[in-house]
Amino acid sequence: MSNITNQTLSEIINNIKSKKLSSQEVTKAFIERSEKSKKLNVYVTENFTSAINQAKKFDEKPNYELKLPGIPIAVKDLFCTNGVKTTAGSKILNNFIPNYESTVTQNIWDQGGILLGKLNCDEFAMGSSNETSFFGNVQNPIGENLVPGGSSGGSSSAVAANLTPVTIGTDTGGSIRQPASFTGTVGLKPTYGSCSRYGIVAFASSLDQAGPMSKNVKDAAILLEVISSFDQKDSTSIDFKRNKYSEELTTKIKGKKIGIPKEYRVEGMSEEIENLWKKGIEHAKECGAEVIDISLPYTNYALPTYYIVAPAEASSNLARYDGVKYGFRSPGKNLIDMYEKTRSEGFGEEVKRRIMIGTYVLSSGYYDAYYLKAQKVRQLIKKDFDDAYKKVDAILTPSTPSSAFKIGEKKDDPVSMYLNDIFTVPVNLAGLPAISIPAGLDKQGYPLGLQIIGKPFDEQNILNIAYSMEEKINFKNKILDWWI
Amino acid sequence: MTIDLKTVKHISKLARISVDEEKANKLTSDLNSIFDFIEKLNELKTENVEPLTSIAETTLRFREDEIKSENIREEILKNSPDENKDFFVVPKVVE
């Protein structure tokens, strides 16, 4: 077998099922390459020894009926893993070892997956460049000192650099799709309520969703099929009939109506992004789709809405980190002093900034002006999509307003960093599914992505559109292993 | 509108995050630039719009109130920042 780590998930599954490869061979190959790739800083916690033992166990008694037979998979360090340190990229959880397992990771292990390790991410998933992690920046395999996007930056980098066959990330405002776009990989945010939030370190509970990140659309479909499930332990989990996403995957999208929202042609958007979008529209037509101009008038209000709703929910969710029952504690002269020091030293700057925004917008006298206002605008944004979906089956937009930028370039200007998520945030506010697929390279050779947004619970449709467009785009990532 | 240093210090008290003078100044300028950006929402008239409180249109489910994990006291206490094996320990709160 030539190179194992280059293979897609579906190729590896086939090779294991046909006994051309053992789980141990596959697991060792990814570990060896990971050992040589420390410079990318994708791992917060390696689980290599245990992974090899589990692979050995699988090989001794293989079960080829499983959907992920003996497949090693590294996951974002935001998913609680029983007995394995879970940090959320934060000092405040630096020593936290959960005694329970998140539902989505449990679904992966139940289907034969093996935990390779926990991947770096922005602290509490707050960031668009993986620069807010307590465990340092992650390098983008596309080029040295280039950010991998965020918050699932360790995940996007690990998939692009062939350090894990696939991975899972979480997406609150674009944290799966934006890093996928920056690294030339595929990332899917499912409909809110599709994947259980149980055991995922909470950021903004009305927006958070877990989803697959992979080298191609088919792999994303395989992984989504495994992680998407109804779960009693998540009160917002929705009991709907889930498709067999990978089996039902098809390129037959003739007659599908795809909307092009004019409001996504934002001020200052580069010509390259504009051209990429036009090319995407052409590809969609070649696939037999009907392209229709649509309007989403409240698009411009999505980011300001997001920066009220998400910090408000975060300030409430992160109130639990007080140094009492788990996590980091800084001693104080009394209880209040201990709280204040613990939180001041345990949280990084971006997290503190967002807790402050959230506390302010929820504080007495400001609630109506900010939080209530934002909830009303959120209604208008959702209605935009409801109206559009009376006319179209899906919506095609760019994934990000630019390609990957240099580490440090936007770090000191929070607002310019927030603008990265301009095309991804409306989807979270409306609770919709969306997928980012690599669609081309800019003149520096950095990948650019296109986003396909679907109706609620219509993951199959956006997967199919992505699958057929992927074939036409025929994207090739340019990764030269500069770090090895 | 502008957020002044006094407000930032008040908010940091509410958020239980201690800030020194330098950090408070930096936060004041950061928060002002973020709120400048957020103020865009004031362009919209929303008197007659219902707030969206939940994106998942479901009602909360009922379930039996059953104990599902027993005897996990030790496991729970394992992550305690304090060495004590029997309790969560905090600085004295009653004089």
List the SSEs and their pairings.
The complex is a heterodimer of chains A (484) and B (95).
Chain A: H1 9-17, H2 23-35, E1 43-46, H3 48-60, E2 72-76, H4 103-110, E3 114-119, H5 153-160, E4 167-171, H6 177-183, E5 186-189, E6 209-214, H7 217-227, E7 257-261, H8 271-286, E8 290-294, H9 302-317, H10 335-346, H11 349-362, H12 368-388, E9 394-398, H13 414-418, H14 425-430, E10 434-441, E11 447-454, H15 459-473
Parallel strand pairs in A: 2-3, 7-8, 7-9
Antiparallel strand pairs in A: 1-3, 4-6, 5-6, 5-10, 9-11, 10-11
Helix pairs in contact in A: 2-3, 5-6, 7-15, 8-15, 9-11, 9-12
Chain B: H1 5-14, H2 21-38, H3 73-78
Explained architecture:
The complex is a heterodimer of chains A (484) and B (95). Chain A has 484 residues and is of the alpha/beta class. Chain A has helices at residues 9-17, 23-35, 48-60, 103-110, 153-160, 177-183, 217-227, 271-286, 302-317, 335-346, 349-362, 368-388, 414-418, 425-430, 459-473, and strands spanning 43-46, 72-76, 114-119, 167-171, 186-189, 209-214, 257-261, 290-294, 394-398, 434-441, 447-454. Chain A has a domain at 300-375. Helices cover 36% and strands 13% of the residues of chain A. An eight-stranded mixed sheet of chain A has the order 4-6-5-10-11-9-7-8, with helices on both faces. The mean pLDDT of chain A is 96. Helices cover 36% and strands 0% of the residues of chain B. The longest helix of chain B has 18 residues, at 21-38. The radius of gyration of chain B is 23 Å and the shape is flat. Chains A and B meet through helix 9, helix 10, helix 11, helix 12 and helix 13 of A and helix 1, helix 2 and helix 3 of B.
